[in-house]
Amino acid sequence: MNLPIYMDYHATTPVDPQVVEAMLPYFTEKFGNPASRQHQFGWIAEEAVESARNIIAKAIGAEPREIIFTSGATEANNLAIKGIAEAWKQKGNHIVTAATEHKSVLDTSKKLEKYGYQVTYLPVDEYGLINLNHLSEIITSKTILVSIMTANNEIGTIQDVGAIGKLCHGRGVFFHTDAVQAIGKFPINVQTMNIDLMSLSAHKVYGPKGVGVLYVRSINPKVKLTMQMDGGGHERGIRSGTLNVPGIAGLAKAVELVVGLMDVETKRMKNLRDKMWNEFQSQLDEVYLNGHPTQRLPNNLNVSFLNVEDNALMMSMKDVAVSTGSACSTVDLEPSYVLKAIRVSKERHHSAIRFGLGKFTTEEEVDYVINRVVESVKKLRELSPSYYKQKRVVNV
Ligand SMILES: *Cc1c(COP(=O)(O)O)cnc(C)c1O
């Protein structure tokens, strides 16, 4: 077993060697620009892109032409929300999202507020779920878009996307979902779930960084949106810019692998994740699960170890890579807005650790992390005067 141990798979994942292999030819001998229609080099690159489009479309129940390649999910989220806002401003200016969305959705929404759009940030319950009745009540004739993520990157909570999609379609409102964390964890079908726009990212599923997808529905209803990256009109005029061919080839391979292995891997990760949680509960007191107990990503465990400061715990086990709060909001050290939204107590908030398991996580690593966490929590609690006092009182 190699140290340090990586248990932060919600932040990013290593590229699968099979994905690297699928990408390599497109850096060197097959280097053409897929937009070059006049020669072989272009055709070969275009063939790779169209094959990737087919694979990804098939994995989510879409048509190939509904797959728009982007530089990642941040761009896909920006394009979906700003693109709809700009194209449909005659119809209305109201957008609905949730308080627990990724920063690329929240900050895009905030930006639109500056330009006169009205955004409702739906609250969530203690498990991180939105309320469908509440959503239904908030939609008006001015509502043009609902954007709710499929699964949360911090607490792992899975929304009932199918029900949200059905509700939106019944009311004639477009539905966008950020499915970055969900793809490959459980089946996603844009038809049965009534999804109009969906964001994906390669580097969360063992693909390369810097490439992603926006699925854009082309029929029932056709989704019209305004290009945000102006230029040559690539990708059916929805996203300009020369395509990242090696990245796209890698993304397709990554999606194919992660969807193909879904049943086996999901079960395996869930077992390892449950082992961790069971061991924490049996070996430590005052541990709390953040997020939904069952409607949850199989590889996510977000736990508060009461009376232990999250950063102190992380520092005391430097050979284990986990995360406190959200790793996505890079520099800011403010407490996690997702934990705030589910209204955990201050104590739980400041003692929360996110464990993210993945394809390369072994049982040996899980056992090591369990021991390391238990040992560190016990040691830190010994040092914590408040906890010590509390314990003594209990013992007396
Ligand atoms: C990582 C992540 C993103 C951002 O994806 P990038 O491709 O890194 O821009 C968006 N949404 C969620 C839920 C994520 O986990």
Describe the fold and architecture:
By secondary structure, this protein is of the alpha/beta class. The chain has two domains: 5-12 and 262-395, Aspartate Aminotransferase, domain 1, CATH 3.90.1150.10; 17-260, Aspartate Aminotransferase, domain 2 (3-Layer(aba) Sandwich). Helix content is 41%, strand content 13%. The protein has 14 helices and twelve strands. It has helices at 17-23, 40-60, 73-87, 103-114, 132-138, 161-170, 234-237, 245-260, 262-283, 310-316, 337-341, 346-349, 363-383, 385-395, and strands spanning 5-6, 67-70, 94-98, 118-122, 143-147, 174-178, 197-201, 212-216, 287-289, 300-305, 320-321, 352-356. The strands form three sheets. Strands 2-8-7-6-5-3-4 form a seven-stranded mixed β-sheet, sandwiched between helices. It has a three-stranded antiparallel β-sheet with strand order 9-10-12. A two-stranded parallel sheet has the order 1-11. Strand 5 (143-147), helix 6 and strand 6 form a beta-alpha-beta unit. Helix 2 (40-60) packs parallel to helix 8 (245-260), helix 3 runs parallel beside helix 4 (103-114) and helix 9 (262-283) packs parallel to helix 13. The longest helix has 22 residues, at 262-283. The radius of gyration is 22 Å and the shape is globular. The protein binds pyridoxal-5'-phosphate (PLP).
Q: What characteristics describe this protein?
A:
single chain, 396 residues, alpha/beta, Aspartate Aminotransferase, domain 1, Aspartate Aminotransferase, domain 2, 2 domains, seven-stranded mixed sheet, three-stranded antiparallel sheet, 14 helices, 12 strands, 13% strand, globular, disordered C terminus, binds pyridoxal-5'-phosphate
